[in-house]
Each structure stands twice: as structure tokens, then as C-alpha cells.
């Protein structure tokens, strides 16, 4: 049996040529960030936790419950995928009502959630009338209406601009004081702002996991040198293209 405050997992998933094999225990407090480059397997790992990818030979324990063979809807979690959408034909209020009707337990906290996400002025609007940040607040509120024990967020800031991102951060920080969050991100700024613990993946493998304060300095140093290398490569490409054009023009 595992610690009550940990999610312990051992997953092994093959997607064509991609192989994810991860065994670790994640703290169930605050925000745990799953970090890595594009294609590292972050979303695949999150979907395994959600029960959306089967890993028949592994194991998964959440607060001493066996999750290995439990379907998604019985795990008591909420999963907010990248660019999660709202029903376009329903207002914000209608979207929340729909989620509440589908919740397993009787929802008594609708008003609380509306206040928490400052949604009162938006209730009568259609999803098309919301900014990206407002839409994300509704998506998070909708996820919370199911009263989850764990919230999974896949790139919660994708598709929204810097100002909206800054406005959304305190909502997620506040939520993380109420329930554990596991968040996928490839952006160290988000992780710095939110995460207490980091799981670093590369090519489907666990590279490191540690408290954010321990791991962030080395991740920052790596990401700076990656950025410099990418800029240099772009510079070389542009100079070669320019030289080619000059040759063509004689
Ligand atoms: N259903 C699938 N079938 C086949 N290959 C898949 C499937 N899902 C993901 N992959 C592949 O698995 C690898 C990991 O994908 P995943 O989405 O987990 O990476 P990621 O780290 O979340 O990347 P990103 O940051 O770009 O979203 C990728 O090479 C992807 O093409």
C-alpha cells in the first residue's frame, strides 16, 4: 500500500514508435507539473492517470485506491484537456447546468464556484462571446462541479495571451489549495508560478522529479541554452537563404 498523499504509478504504453515507461510516486498536494519538450510524453502520461490510456501490466494507486482497472468516470477526477471546448449552443450558465446534472454527487456548490471564478457577469453569454481567459475560467468551473478529488490540467494556458494568462494564474493557485492538481506544461514560466513539484520527462522516460525549488534552476539553465541554440540555428538558416537570394539576383 502507498502513502495516502501520493499517486503511485507504473505505466507502460506503446504508441507506434513511441514508448512511454514511467514509474514514480507523485505528491498529492498543491500543483505537480509534468514538464518536457514537445513529444516527451506529457499528455500520454496525463491520459494514463485519467484512465484514458490502458497500461495493462502496470499499477496505479491513488490514496490507497487501486486505479489500475478503474474506468475514468470512477476515478473521481476532472480532466481539462488542451483547448477544452464548451457547448456552443448553451450559455455559460447552461454549460454549468449541464455539467452539474452529470455530476456523480449532488452539487451544492454551484454558487460558490461561480463566485470563485468570478463568473456572475458571464452567465448569460454564449461561449463565442468569451475571451480565451474567460473561457478557461468557465472550463475550470465546469470541471469543479463534479467535485473531483484530483484535477488534471493539460496546458491550461495554451491559446490565451499573456494578459489573460496572468489573470488566470491566481484562480489556479487558489484551486490548488483546495485539491491536488497535476498540470502538463512545456513552459517554465507557468511552472515557476504554480508548481511545488516537477516531473521532468524526455522521450517517454522520467529524467528527474523533485521539489520545484530544487529542479527549476537546472531546467532554466537548460532552456536558456536550448533557446540560444535555436536562435543560432535560425540565424544560420536566414543567412543561407539570404546568400541564396543574392546569388539568384546575380
Ligand atoms: N494515439 C496515438 N497514436 C500514436 N502516437 C501517439 C498517440 N498519442 C501520442 N502519440 C505520439 O506519442 C508521442 C508523445 O505524445 P504526447 O502528446 O504525449 O507528447 P507531449 O509531451 O504531450 O507533446 P506536446 O507538448 O507537443 O503536446 C508523440 O510522438 C506522439 O506523436
UniProtKB/TrEMBL annotation:
InterPro entries linked to this entry: AAA+_ATPase, ABC_transporter-like_ATP-bd, ABC_transporter-like_CS, Molybdenum_import_ModC, P-loop_NTPase
Transmembrane segments: 17-37
GO MF annotation terms: ATP binding; ATP hydrolysis activity
UniProt key word Transferase: no
Entry-linked SUPFAM superfamilies: P-loop containing nucleoside triphosphate hydrolases
Record carries keyword Transcription regulation: no
Family matches, as Gene3D superfamilies: P-loop containing nucleotide triphosphate hydrolases
Pfam families, sorted: ABC_tran
Key words of the record: ATP-binding, Membrane, Nucleotide-binding, Transmembrane, Transmembrane helix
Annotated ABC transporter domain residues: 2-228
Name the record gives this protein: Molybdate transport system ATP-binding protein
Amino acid at each position: 500500500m502507498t502513502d495516502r498523499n501520493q499517486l503511485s504509478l507504473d505505466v507502460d504504453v506503446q504508441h507506434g514508435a513511441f514508448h512511454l515507461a514511467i514509474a514514480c510516486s507523485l505528491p498529492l498536494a498543491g500543483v505537480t507539473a509534468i514538464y518536457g519538450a514537445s513529444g516527451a510524453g506529457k499528455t500520454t502520461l496525463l491520459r494514463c492517470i485519467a484512465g484514458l490510456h490502458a497500461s495493462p501490466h502496470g499499477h496505479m494507486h491513488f490514496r490507497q485506491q487501486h486505479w489500475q482497472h478503474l474506468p475514468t468516470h470512477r476515478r473521481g477526477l476532472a480532466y481539462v484537456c488542451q483547448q477544452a471546448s464548451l457547448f456552443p449552443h448553451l450559455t455559460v450558465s447552461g454549460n454549468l447546468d449541464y455539467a452539474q446534472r452529470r455530476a456523480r454527487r449532488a452539487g451544492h456548490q454551484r454558487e460558490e464556484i461561480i463566485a470563485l471564478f468570478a463568473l456572475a457577469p458571464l452567465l448569460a453569454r454564449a461561449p463565442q462571446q468569451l475571451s480565451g481567459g474567460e473561457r478557461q475560467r468557465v472550463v475550470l468551473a465546469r470541471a469543479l462541479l463534479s467535485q473531483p478529488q484530483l484535477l488534471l490540467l493539460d496546458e491550461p494556458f495554451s491559446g490565451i495571451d499573456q494578459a489573460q494568462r496572468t489573470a488566470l494564474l491566481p484562480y489556479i493557485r487558489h484551486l490548488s489549495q483546495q485539491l491536488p492538481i497535476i498540470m502538463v506544461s512545456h513552459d517554465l514560466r507557468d511552472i515557476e508560478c504554480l508548481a511545488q513539484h516537477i516531473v521532468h520527462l524526455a522521450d517517454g522516460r522520467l529524467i528527474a522529479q523533485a521539489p520545484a525549488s530544487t529542479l527549476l534552476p537546472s531546467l532554466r539553465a537548460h532552456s536558456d541554452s536550448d533557446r540560444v541554440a535555436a536562435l543560432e540555428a535560425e540565424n544560420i538558416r536566414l543567412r543561407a537563404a539570404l546568400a541564396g537570394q543574392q546569388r539568384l539576383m546575380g
